[in-house]
Specification:
- β10 and β11 form a beta hairpin.
- The chain is mainly beta.
- It is rod-shaped, with a radius of gyration of 43 Å.
- The strands form 6 sheets. It has a 5-stranded antiparallel β-sheet with strand order 18-17-20-21-22, with no helix packed on it. It has a 4-stranded antiparallel β-sheet with strand order 4-3-6-7, with no helix packed on it.
- It is about 10% helix and about 45% strand.
Length: about 325
């Protein structure tokens, strides 16, 4: 029995010592917590761009709230006090990096946290000018200058419309480049070229700047019929006649707008029959070449039955 009592005494002593150690550890932990809870710098500071001229700076408070915070950008001589955990810094430059300090101010001292932020890049302004150079029969250059811009212009988008004068032929094209000039080739002679140039930043494209020019006329060359007239013949016919262009076409097409098919002829005249008396007609005469055609327009009025067949007054329009 004595040896058993001795063992119980030893076990009780061990348990008492373990309890005392645990109590001491808990006291030490409580002491550490009390020490950690005190003044300090703002935490998790971030700077988020707002548009292209502002940064929203925000943070989490330290465990002991300060009297106030100070938001500072030294390079811009910006310093603002606030009691909030955020501050909108305005009046900055687009696409710029900024070094920011946020200070938590206490009675005796202050603590600093640092962050960096970059303002956004806006859409660039339109190119300042647009013009043409080295204009020839089938080639030309489109040129442009950019407007001054604080951010990077990374490229340009150029669109152009080709309108072959004296015909119905039109086409549009588009390309992109980092240069300030493009060279167009294989253009038809006597073609109106309308160009639109847009500047590009990493955000998007500017509004276009537009300019236009006409390629040289290839003379002699293809073109529309000239001096087209429509003369009434009786009350149900019109005699349409014209002069040929400088380069004779393969053939001509005489077309009344109410009859989209038209009639082919190798002559420089055509009698349009089967019309209504005293009616006004729009007429188109086309000169047809291998790869394109040119159009001239005229109008005429058939006679009233019983009237003499005097020539009608016509309007001549070339397209």
């Amino acid at each position: 029995m004595l040896w058993w009592s001795g063992r119980l005494l030893v076990l009780a002593a061990l348990l008492t010592a373990a309890a005392l150690d645990t109590e001491e550890i808990q006291k030490e932990d409580e002491h550490l917590v009390l020490v950690a809870a005190g003044p300090g710098p703002p935490e998790n500071v971030i700077a988020t761009p707002v548009g292209s001229t502002a940064l929203n700076v925000s943070w989490d408070p330290p465990e002991e709230p300060p009297l106030y915070y100070i938001v500072r950008i030294d390079s811009e001589s910006i310093e603002n006090d606030t009691s909030n955990t955020y501050f909108l810094v305005e009046g900055l430059e687009p696409c710029q990096d900024y070094y920011i300090r946020v200070l938590s101010r206490y009675n005796g001292n202050q603590y600093t946290a640092k962050a960096t932020g970059t303002t956004n890049t806006p859409v660039p302004p339109s190119p300042q000018t647009c013009w043409f150079s080295d204009v020839h029969t089938s080639t030309l250059d489109i040129n442009w200058n950019d407007t001054q811009f604080k951010c990077a212009i990374v490229g340009h988008r150029i669109s152009w419309l080709l309108d072959v004068l004296g015909s119905d032929e039109e086409s549009t094209n588009q390309t992109t480049t980092t240069d300030h000039q493009i060279h167009l080739t294989n253009l038809p002679p006597y073609t109106n070229v309308t160009a639109s140039v847009e500047a590009e930043s990493k955000t998007g494209y500017s509004q276009p700047t537009t300019c236009w020019n006409v390629t040289d006329h290839d003379s002699p060359g293809p073109g529309p019929p000239e001096n087209v007239i429509a003369t009434p013949v009786g009350s149900t016919a019109l005699n349409v006649s014209w002069d040929p262009p400088e380069e004779p076409p393969l053939y001509y097409i005489v077309r009344i707008d109410s009859d989209p098919i038209g009639n082919d002829t190798n002559n420089t005249y055509f009698l349009v029959e089967g019309l209504e008396p005293c009616q006004y007609y729009d007429i188109r005469v086309l000169s047809r070449y291998n790869d394109r055609q040119f159009v001239a327009k005229v109008s005429g009025t058939t006679n009233t039955p019983g009237n003499s067949s005097a020539p009608a007054v016509v309007d001549l329009e070339f397209v």
